[in-house]
Every structure is written in structure tokens, then in C-alpha cells.
Design a protein that fits this description.
This protein is mainly β and about 130 residues long. The chain has helices spanning about 65-75, 85-90; strands at about 15-30, 35-40, 45-55, 95-105, 110-120. It has a 5-stranded antiparallel beta sheet.
Length: about 130
């Protein structure tokens, strides 16, 4: 394997994908803002990332709406009290993610953005 400055990440096309949360951790920006960094791995080994920022009002918690949508998609109904417990509960779990491939004006590059989390539909035996 050779390394090069010409590396370009492989992007997923717009669509819904079954994905596994392959990594989850809390990160802090240089300005002190924190976010939950999620790495999703798609079946074709493409990685897609999502940042869920700390809530502006309840700064000890991440954005309630996005975390609730993720937990619902992962079928996790337990009350989770800490960041560590949240990470442990979601890591290596699967859900459907809605990915949009779009141009970012700030970075001047195409990138993937996760717009929604959905439950995996289980095949029901009849």
C-alpha cells in the first residue's frame, strides 16, 4: 500500500443504507464545543460520519431530537444517563441511515451528510 497526498474519500451515493455504528466518541473543538462523533460503516465498507452537538440549553446533554431519533432507530428504549453509557449502548448497533451526497460551500467539496435514522425492518415470519 502506498500513501499519497492525492487521497480522496469514497463517498456513498444518495440513498438509504443499512449501517453499523463502528465508532462513537465525544470530541471537543478548539473553541470548547463538544459533539458526539459517530462513524457508520456501510456494507461496501464506506464510512459516513455524523456529528451530534451538545444542546444549547441543557449543555450536559447532546441534541435531544437527534439522539432520540437514533435511539428509536436502534430500538433502544432504556433511559441513558451518561455520555459513556450512551456510547456503550449504541456502538456496534445497526440501523438504516438516509445519506445525501451534497456540495459543501465552506469546504468546496462533495461530502456525505446523514439526514435521518430509521429502524431496520425485520422480516416477520408468517
Amino acid at each position: 500500500m502506498a500513501y499519497s497526498s492525492n487521497y480522496k474519500p469514497v463517498l456513498a451515493e444518495t440513498g438509504d443504507y443499512e449501517a453499523t455504528i463502528s465508532n462513537a466518541d465525544v470530541r471537543t473543538t478548539n473553541s470548547g464545543s463538544q459533539y458526539l462523533n459517530l462513524a457508520f460503516t456501510l456494507p461496501n465498507n464506506i464510512r459516513v460520519y455524523k456529528k451530534i452537538w451538545r444542546d444549547f440549553i441543557v449543555t450536559s446533554e447532546f441534541n435531544h431530537e437527534q439522539v432520540a431519533e437514533l435511539l428509536t432507530a436502534l430500538n433502544i428504549n432504556d433511559e441513558i444517563e451518561t455520555d459513556f453509557a450512551l456510547i456503550q449502548a449504541i456502538k456496534d448497533k445497526k440501523c438504516i441511515i438516509s445519506v445525501v451526497k451534497e456540495f459543501n460551500d465552506k469546504t468546496q467539496k462533495e461530502e456525505n451528510n446523514i439526514k435521518a435514522f430509521k429502524q431496520i425492518e425485520e422480516d416477520l415470519p408468517f
